[in-house]
Amino acid sequence: DAKTTQPNSMESNEEEPVHLPCNHSTISGTDYIHWYRQLPSQGPEYVIHGLTSNVNNRMASLAIAEDRKSSTLILHRATLRDAAVYYCILRASGGSNYKLTFGKGTLLTVNP
Amino acid sequence: NAGVMQNPRHLVRRRGQEARLRCSPMKGHSHVYWYRQLPEEGLKFMVYLQKENIIDESGMPKERFSAEFPKEGPSILRIQQVVRGDSAAYFCASSRMTSVGETQYFGPGTRLLVL
């Protein structure tokens, strides 16, 4: 499986935008980029996913580099409830893509 | 539409006892996955089941662990003769399909503590 690299932790202030980076230099052409987050004492929660184009949904935006070797999850206005561990995950379009491979993720702290 | 349900939320067992973890997938979901999260680590895939079938158990320890998803009722993850190293959070997820764009919805987890 292609690997992802994320910073161990990031800090933000409430109401400000947050850009969470993810490097995936060995991504293959058919790998999708998924983001999940895990709030304290809860199960992971789907955030967003994309293949090549930038994506927006009600939770966040996903900006994918043109060469697809990196991506950025954007929270437009961080709230205290966004404090969580954020995981960047690659999923192949075939094979055993049901196995989500979680790394250490990025621990996001949001300051009031 | 209720989310994925897991029970119990917390389970304490002594070494050598059995632990039974239950997972009810979201309505309409026939694919169930179990993951384990050891302290200070990321989640690791254990097993993937469809109704009455184990599709992939490559992440599950060969001994003492078993999983089932019967035609009726919840999926069960069973750990026999628990040891301290089994202490972890066990998460169940479900999905309608397994395509790459299909979201896996996770339950709140069962936190197992082995004394």
Summarize the structure in words.
With 112 residues, chain A is an all-beta fold. Helices cover 0% and strands 46% of the residues of chain A. Chain A has no helices and nine strands. Chain A has strands spanning 9-13, 18-23, 32-38, 44-50, 55-56, 61-64, 70-75, 84-91, 106-111. Chain A is globular. With 115 residues, chain B is mainly β. Chain B contains no helices and eleven strands. In chain B, strands 2, 4, 5, 6, 9, 10 and 11 form a seven-stranded mixed sheet that branches. Classes of the chains: A mainly beta (112), B mainly beta (115). Chains A and B meet through β4 of A and β4, β5, β9 and β10 of B.
Provide a short characterization of the protein structure.
The complex is a heterodimer of chains A (112) and B (115). Chain A is built from no helices and nine strands.
SSE-based structural type of chain A: mainly beta
The rough form of chain A would be described as globular
For the largest beta-sheet of chain B, the strand count, sense and barrel status come to: 7 strands, mixed
Based on CA atoms alone, the radius of gyration of chain A comes out at 13 Å
CA-CA gap between termini of chain A: 38 Å
Strand content of chain B: over 45%
**Can you give the mean pLDDT of chain A?**
93
Q: Biggest β-sheet of chain A, characterized?
A: 5 strands, mixed
What is the count of DSSP helices of chain A, taking H or I runs of 4+ residues? Answer: 0
Features:
heterodimer; A: 112 residues; mainly beta; five-stranded mixed sheet; four-stranded antiparallel sheet; 9 strands; globular; B: 115 residues; seven-stranded mixed sheet; 0% helix
Give a topology summary.
The complex is a heterodimer of chains A (112) and B (115).
Chain A: E1 9-13, E2 18-23, E3 32-38, E4 44-50, E5 55-56, E6 61-64, E7 70-75, E8 84-91, E9 106-111
Parallel strand pairs in A: 1-9
Antiparallel strand pairs in A: 2-7, 3-4, 3-8, 5-6, 6-7, 8-9
Chain B: E1 5-7, E2 10-13, E3 19-24, E4 31-37, E5 43-50, E6 53-56, E7 65-68, E8 75-79, E9 88-95, E10 105-106, E11 110-114
Parallel strand pairs in B: 2-11
Antiparallel strand pairs in B: 1-3, 3-8, 4-5, 4-9, 5-6, 7-8, 9-10, 9-11
